[in-house]
Design goal:
There is one protein chain. By secondary structure, this protein is of the alpha+beta class. The protein has two domains: 4-175, Ribosomal Protein S5, domain 2 (2-Layer Sandwich); 184-330, GHMP kinase, C-terminal domain (Alpha-Beta Plaits, 2-Layer Sandwich). 37% of the residues lie in helices and 25% in strands. It has helices spanning 76-93, 115-135, 142-150, 199-205, 215-231, 235-254, 265-282, 304-316; strands at 4-16, 21-23, 28-29, 33-49, 57-60, 63-64, 67-68, 70-71, 99-105, 164-168, 171-175, 184-189, 287-290, 296-300, 322-325, 329-330. A hairpin with a 4-residue loop joins β2 (21-23) and β3. α1 (76-93) packs parallel to α2 and α5 runs antiparallel to α6. The protein is globular, with a radius of gyration of 20 Å.
């Protein structure tokens, strides 16, 4: 008789970026990062036990809680990486059985929305819940689970904590005293095609940029400054820090050897609109950031101004781009 287990995990968006690694194999970052957890963008992973001696295998998941999903289409390399992480987790728990692994997202994959983070976090969660139930072991503490997940996908360790997570040399943990309460998140998807340069490859290439010298130090200074600004409820200062930070990261991409980039005409269109209509005209607006992809993330305060501007984004930019909103789903 087979057994099935299922878990979900959210994406997260870093406002201070993890870019570059001190240990590529173990996904150890060159600098501390600070992220906000996106609980409305989730990966779902299912494990089903197989007969003894069968190899682990991956296949797409097509439904969750009665809802149809857009299945992930993993390449052979991507599926191998996913199954390698499963093997790592099984070895950690001393489990010799096999599984079929099924996974899907409720948002687009491989286009800069941190689907790798959420999918590896979900795989880690379901495995570390399933095996103890099958073998009568105790489940691991959350921080240890997050550290194991980091070995599969670095930024996945931040998806174990909410609403804010900080990840540095000592691992990832929750940050709970940053003010403003729950924020409204929007991502404007200007392009959902698969990236030509993966995030993993980007981490390698940025080390060739002349701008990478001093990058870890800049990021560490910004983490400290951003935390202080949020604790002091200095929203304008938080905007300036996060705006400078994502441009810093994209400048690394464009000045690497060979150079590459993710920004498109659509990215610049959204960035100009948001800054012009909010911060330049009104002196207030959302925090703005981009990941390693062309799409633009916004974090609004959950107050009358933030809700009104989020509605304006949905109405105006939703006419030409896909908009995913934490307070209203997909536009």
């Amino acid at each position: 008789m087979s057994h099935r287990f299922r878990a979900t995990a959210p994406s997260n968006i870093a406002l201070i970026k993890y870019m570059g690694k001190t240990d590529t194999a173990a996904n150890r970052p060159t600098n501390t990062s600070l992220s906000y957890t996106l609980n409305h963008l989730n990966s779902i992973v299912e494990l089903e036990t197989l007969e003894k001696g069968a190899p682990d295998r991956w296949e797409p998941l097509r439904e969750h809680e009665g809802q149809s999903l857009t299945p992930i289409e993993l390449s052979e390399k991507g599926a191998s990486r996913f199954l390698a992480h499963l093997s790592r987790l099984k070895a950690r728990l001393g489990y010799e059985g096999s599984f079929v692994v099924r996974s899907a997202n409720d948002f687009p994959s491989d286009c800069g929305l941190a689907s790798s983070a959420s999918s590896f976090a979900a795989l880690t969660r379901v495995t570390l819940a399933a095996i103890p139930r099958l073998t009568d072991q105790r489940e691991l503490p959350v921080r240890e689970a997050a550290d194991l997940s980091r070995q599969g996908s670095g930024s996945s360790c931040r998806s174990f904590f909410s609403p804010w997570s900080i990840w540095g040399a000592e691992g990832a943990t929750e940050v709970s005293d940053l003010g403003f309460g729950d924020l409204l998140h929007q991502v404007i998807v200007v392009d959902d095609e698969k990236k030509a340069v993966s995030s993993s490859e980007a981490h390698v290439r940025v080390a060739s940029s002349a701008l990478f010298r001093g990058r870890p130090e800049r990021a560490e200074e910004r983490v400290t400054a951003l935390i202080k600004s949020l604790q002091a409820e200095d929203w304008g200062r938080a905007f300036e820090i996060t705006w400078a930070e994502f441009w810093d990261m994209h400048a690394l991409f464009e000045t690497s050897e060979p150079s590459f980039g993710y920004m498109t005409a659509g990215s610049l269109d959204v960035l100009r609109f948001v800054r012009s209509e909010s911060w330049e005209k009104r002196g207030d607006g959302p925090l703005v950031t981009m990941d390693a992809g062309p799409n633009v993330h916004l974090l609004h305060r959950n107050d009358p101004y933030g809700r009104a501007f989020a509605a304006q984004i949905e109405k105006t930019l939703g006419e030409r781009y896909k908009v995913f909103s934490s307070h209203g789903g997909r536009v």
